[in-house]
Amino acid sequence: MSIFDNLFQHAAVDTVAVFDQDFRQVFPSARALKAVVKENAKLMEQPVESGAVITDHRIILPIEIELSFVLQAQDYLDTYRAIKQYFLNGTLLVVQTRSGVYQNQLIASMPHEEDPAQYDTLVMAVSFKQVQFVTPQFTVRPQRPSNVSTVKRGEIQPSTRTPSPTTLKSWKDSAVNYWTGKAA
């Protein structure tokens, strides 16, 4: 039994853990030593003529989390492979810390050190970054109110009729008058 096994044998519930989207713990034998949660915002600053800088709004950036794990001796190879598989697959995970639960996290990096002084364990610093999904919402408003009745007509097949020569001349005259500024 290693020193880490002795330290963590009484831990019944992990307060810092990583889960899949169904809230099943994915690395149960990895023991979190430290969690660094970065909740940042980017401030938008503009200089003014007097030399002062005005900050008028901000953008909330994706949450980044760095978890330092100790992989236990009896199964560190399997746990390392599982972490690497989640990293390669780009699977969305949930990270729980004492301060909160953070959804839609991807493993951004998984560096580790292998040191003979650490005996039979492996220490990793796994970095997570939040994925933010955006659903675009927009409406189309016609420039001319007379076109309102044509907005919600769906897909329409093109007409096989060819316009008459007088209609074509009328369209041509309208376009020329518009571009030359003679439109009424």
How would you describe this protein?
By secondary structure, this protein is of the alpha+beta class. It is built from three helices and nine strands, in the order H-E-E-E-E-E-H-E-E-E-E-H. The strands form two sheets. Strands 1, 2, 5, 6, 7, 8 and 9 form a seven-stranded antiparallel beta sheet that branches. Strand 6 (93-96) and strand 7 (101-109) form a beta hairpin. The chain is elongated, with a radius of gyration of 31 Å. The mean pLDDT is 82.
Global structural class: alpha+beta
Q: What form results from the Cα inertia axes?
A: elongated
Please estimate the helix content: 10-25%
How much strand content do the residues show? 25-35%
- Kindly report how far apart the N and C termini lie: 93 Å
Radius of gyration of CA atoms, rounded to a whole number: 31 Å
Keywords:
7-stranded antiparallel β-sheet; 9 strands; 3 helices; two-stranded antiparallel ribbon; alpha+beta; 20% helix; 184 residues
Summarize this structure briefly.
This protein has helices spanning 3-8, 76-89, 165-180; strands at 17-19, 30-38, 41-47, 53-60, 64-71, 93-96, 101-109, 112-113, 122-130. It has 184 residues and is an alpha+beta fold.
SSE inventory with pairings:
Layout lengths: L2 H6 L8 E3 L10 E9 L2 E7 L5 E8 L3 E8 L4 H14 L3 E4 L4 E9 L2 E2 L8 E9 L34 H16 L4
Antiparallel strand pairs: 1-6, 2-5, 3-4, 5-9, 6-7, 7-9, 8-9
